[in-house]
Amino acid sequence: MTNTIADIEEADVILITGSNTTENHPVLSSFVKRAVKFRGAKLILVDPRRIKIAAYAHQWLRQNLGADVAWINGMMNVIIEEDLYDKTFVAERTEGFEEMKKVVEKFTPEYVEGISGIPAQQIIDAARMYAAAEKGTILYCMGITQHITGTDNVKSLANLAMLCGNMGIRGGGVNPLRGQNNVQGACDMGGLPNVFTAYQPVNNPDAVKKMEQNWGVSGISDKVGLKVTEMIPKAHSGELKALYIIGENPLVSDPDLNHAEASFKHLDFLVVQDIFMTETAQLADVVLPSACFAEKEGTFSNTERRVQRVRKAVEPPGEAKDDWWITWEIARRMGHETDQYTDSQKIFEEIRKVTPSYAGITYERIEVEGLHWPCPTTEHPGTPILHIGQFPKGRGTFHAIDYIQPAEQTDDEYPLYLTTGRVLYQYHTGTMTRKTQGLNEREGESFVEITPRDADRLKIEDGAMVEISSRRGAIQARIKISDKAVDGTVFIPFHFAEAAANRLTNAALDPVSGIPEYKVCAVKVSAAA
């Protein structure tokens, strides 16, 4: 997030898109509700489903799946045409405005209505509301990123925020809501194939030299590694022989699961390190039991870039060990003899040395309350709000982005669109939550959310078992007729391995991020045999 969670309550207008906020981020959603109910903030929601936060929205725009670039460009078209944009901010702090303006000229409200399904007047009203705000914040989640145009979608939201001068101010910003605990911290620590910590490129000679000096080694590779979604096809072809998975359950969470399962079975050697015996761990040659969050010391970095202490509350069961200890012990047995890693605090001290944005953060400074990175020195107070005064590169760049259709379209054989997501009472692949009786009583099985009109057309009753199939596979689940749904689109949560939505989803990738298009694919629904 460019801003803090608390900042949400200071916004005059809140734009939420691609986020079922109350179910995916229930704590954070309370800040939105308070801002609307008690502080007079206006809420614009752009989402194809009538999710719970729609009850608080002043404007709800219901877009067709995969049409995000179109409606964002449509809002910018109105803001520019009606001269509502922040000319001072654009002139003094940005570049590329004219190129972006040329692209959005064709995205008139009427043109956007034809692509997105959002009525032209709603585009106009939302654009005026956002542009009129002194402080406007944008919140988004995986409904924006999990498309073949996910990178374009995020850049488009950044365009909109800069156009109205909503960067570097309290109550503003572009704020991604992270989908899992410590995703931000994992990325900060170099959990990506092309960077070291703090997003220092692995092919930067200075960064390589710094790491070699700190780690006491030589010959670190400067070759960019594989994204997760590149590994699976290479396992299938036999190019990738072994895979080591830590804290992930891809045999429920990966797209096109039938292909993913076949790919895993082509591996010579699979290691899984996790807290429970997941569906993926059941295929592993070696399972390494690890400690959960309550059983270890360390730090998490949350969605607002706040680095926080985690303290051990209970002892880990059996032979479960800290993840860092397992990794270090494997490295030691492979010949890297060192005794420098004896506890999490010593590891954090090394993190500070090699990570400029964490350099000023110490265990002592975050004993009571966390600090936001970047925090370059021990005297620095941390940076709750990014981009105050200027962007790290100087001027912020507008990107001229045209609309691209989703990778897969409906047809006579597969006439419905499928989108996937989460429910409040289960989490991710259910590794932890599905072992909790109370949560299973609330939401214990998969379902297919569908409109009354589509259910009537298909002659399917509420609660009936149906088969849902795509070009990649089929599952069975129970029908849930709901006014949340939109005609022509069904929704399935992805938590349930026995009816895994990802047997249906498309593995088409965003060319930049490598994220699959989980949010759009074509399916058909019929009564179960």
Describe the structure.
With 529 residues, the protein is of the alpha/beta class. It has 4 domains: 172 residues, Dimethylsulfoxide Reductase, domain 2; 133 residues, Rossmann fold (3-Layer(aba) Sandwich); 55 residues, no CATH class; 112 residues, Barwin-like endoglucanases (Beta Barrel), CATH 2.40.40.20. Helix content is 30%, strand content 17%. The strands form 6 sheets. Strands 15-17-16-21-14-18 form a 6-stranded mixed beta sheet. Strands 3-2-1-5-6 form a 5-stranded parallel beta sheet. Strands 7-8-9 form a 3-stranded parallel beta sheet, with no helix packed on it.
Mean pLDDT, to the nearest integer, reads 96
**DSSP helix fraction:** 25-40%
What is the radius of gyration computed over CA atoms, rounded to a whole number of angstroms? 24 Å
Could you name the ranges where pLDDT drops below 50 across 5 or more consecutive residues?
A: none
Assign an overall shape.
Answer: globular
Give the strand order, joined by hyphens, for the main sheet.
Answer: 15-17-16-21-14-18
Going by helix content, strand content and strand pairing, the class is alpha/beta
Q: How many β-strand stretches?
A: 21
Number of helices: 18
Largest pleated sheet: 6 strands, mixed
The number of domains is 4
What is the first-to-last residue Cα distance?
47 Å
Question: How would you summarize what this structure contains?
Answer:
With 529 residues, this protein is α/β, with parallel strands linked by helices.
